Fold these 2 entries.
Entry 1:
Amino acid sequence: MPDRAVTFADLSLGYGHQAVLTGLDHVVRRGSLTAVVGANGSGKSTLMRTIAGILRPIAGRCAIGPNLRLAYLPQQSELDRSFPARTIDLVGLGLWPRRGLIGRHRAGDRRAVRAALAAVGLEGFANIPLDRLSGGQMQRALFARVLVQDADLILLDEPFNAIDSQTVAVLLGLIRHWHAEGRTIMTVLHDLDLAQSHFPEILRLTGIAEAEPAAAHRGRQVLRLAAGGPA
Ligand SMILES: Nc1ncnc2c1ncn2[C@@H]1O[C@H](COP(=O)(O)OP(=O)(O)OP(=O)(O)O)[C@@H](O)[C@H]1O
C-alpha cells in the first residue's frame, strides 16, 4: 500500500522468547509525525529497534513500505563517544548508504555535510573531536547526520533527554521541517506535554505490566492511538 510507511500485523516483539509487547496491529501512515509514549519499560525502544530491523519480531510482521530509506537514532546512552573521530566525520557517516564506508565523497557531499552542521548551529565544530562535545552539541551533530541521510522514515529514540531548551527548540524545528517535506517521523518521548503540543499523532504503548484487564485476558497488549496536536 503506497500510503503505508510501517505496518504492524499481529506483531509480538521482545528479546529471545521474552515478549515485551504482543498482538500489535497498526499502520503508520506515510508523512505522519508520531510521538511514541508510555511508561518506563513499556517497550518504546524495543519497538524502535524492531522497526529499524535490529531486532527480529518474535511473531507476526513489522513491514516497512517499499523503497523507504530509514534513519534510526538510538538513545545517546547507547552510543560510544570515545570513538576517535571529529564532528564532521560523524555527520559524514550519514552518506554511507549512498557512498559506502570507504567511498569517495564528492564536492556536493562535502557541501551537504557543511550545510547540515550549519542547520543545527554547529558551524565552527567540524574539526572538534566527539569526546569534546556536550550532550546537546552531540545531539545536534547526530541530527545533522540524519539530515545528511536524507531518509524517508526517521526513528528518533528520546532525542530530547537531558538536552537544554535551546537545543530542543532547534531540533524540534528540524523535525517540523522534515514533516513539512513529507517524511515519516516516529519519536519516542517521555514528555507528554511536548508530545501533545508538537506531535499530531501519539502512540501510547501499554506494556505487559499495565495492560488493561480485558486486553490481558485476550493475551494482547494495548496500542492506543490518541488524538494529539497543538492544544
Ligand atoms: N537487551 C535486552 N535484553 C533483554 N531485555 C531487555 C533488553 N532491553 C530492554 N529489555 C527489557 O524490555 C522491556 C522494555 O524495554 P524498553 O527499553 O523497550 O522500554 P522503554 O519503554 O523504552 O523504557 P524507558 O522509558 O525506560 O526507556 C523492559 O522490561 C526491559 O528490561
Entry 2:
Amino acid sequence: MNQPLIEARQLGKQYGQDIILEGVNTQVHEGEFVTLVGASGCGKSTFLKMILGIEQASSGELLLNGDTIPNEPGPDRGIVFQQYSVFPHMTVLENVIAAKGFQKASLTGYLFGKERRLAQQEATEMLTQVGLSHALKRYPHELSGGMKQRLAIAQAIICKPRILLLDEPFGALDPGIRGDMHTLILDLWKAHNLTIFMVTHDLKEGFHLGTRLWVFDKIRHDPQAPNAYGASITYDLPVGESDTRTYDDLHQQLTHQQQTSEKA
Ligand SMILES: Nc1ncnc2c1ncn2[C@@H]1O[C@H](COP(=O)(O)OP(=O)(O)OP(=O)(O)O)[C@@H](O)[C@H]1O
C-alpha cells in the first residue's frame, strides 16, 4: 500500500505533569474519513491540534507524508471548530475571500487587482457549493448557526487542504439541520478528495459519516492519580462494515467511560 498521509508512532502528549495521550500508533491513508469519539477531556481535540501543527508531540512521532509534521498550520490542513470562527465585521463573501487572502498574503490578507477578482470568483463558487449563494452580502450576525458553519467550511476548503479537521462542527446545531450538514460534508469530502478527521460526541454521527471510527480511552488507570496515564486509540473500526451489535456495545462502553471520567 502507498505511504500513509498521516502516521503516529508511539505518539504521546502531556501538559506539565498531566499525561493526555500515550502510545498512539496509527496510519491513515488519503481519502479516509476518520471519526473520533471518547470521553470528554481524553485528548481528541489535542490530537487534531497536533495534526494542525499548533501543538507538538511530547514523545514519539507524528508524520505527514513520511515527514515530521510542521510545527505551524499550513494550507494543506484546514480546520472547522464547534464555535463559529468567522470574521464578524465582514460579509459572507468577504470572509471567504479573506481566508484565501491569508493563504496568499499572510500578513494582511488583502488581495488586489486580478488576484482579488479571481479570489472573488472562486469564493462565490465555493459558497454556491456549500449552499450560501443567496447570502453573499450578509454579515455573520444575520446567519443561522448552520449557515455560519457552512461559511466556516467554505473558508477552510477554499484553501484547498488535503486534510480537513472537524472539531465537533455540528455539536451546537439542531438535529434537523445536522442531517443537511452531514449530506454537505459527505459531498465535499468526495468532491475535493479530502482526508477527514472529525471529533464528535454523537456515536451515531461517527458511525454514519466515517469510513473508520476511533475510540480514545485510557488503557492504564491509577485511581490515586487520574492524570498519570494518557489515552490511546482503543478501538479502530471500519464503520461501514460494523453491525448494530458493535454500535450497541460501543454505546454502552462510551456511556460508562463518560461516567468514569466525570467522577475522576
Ligand atoms: N493548552 C493546554 N494546557 C494545559 N492543558 C490542556 C491544554 N489544552 C488541553 N488541555 C487539557 O488536555 C486534556 C484534553 O483536552 P482535549 O480538549 O484534547 O479533550 P477532548 O477529548 O477533545 O475533550 P472534549 O470532548 O470535551 O472536547 C484536558 O484535560 C484539557 O484540560
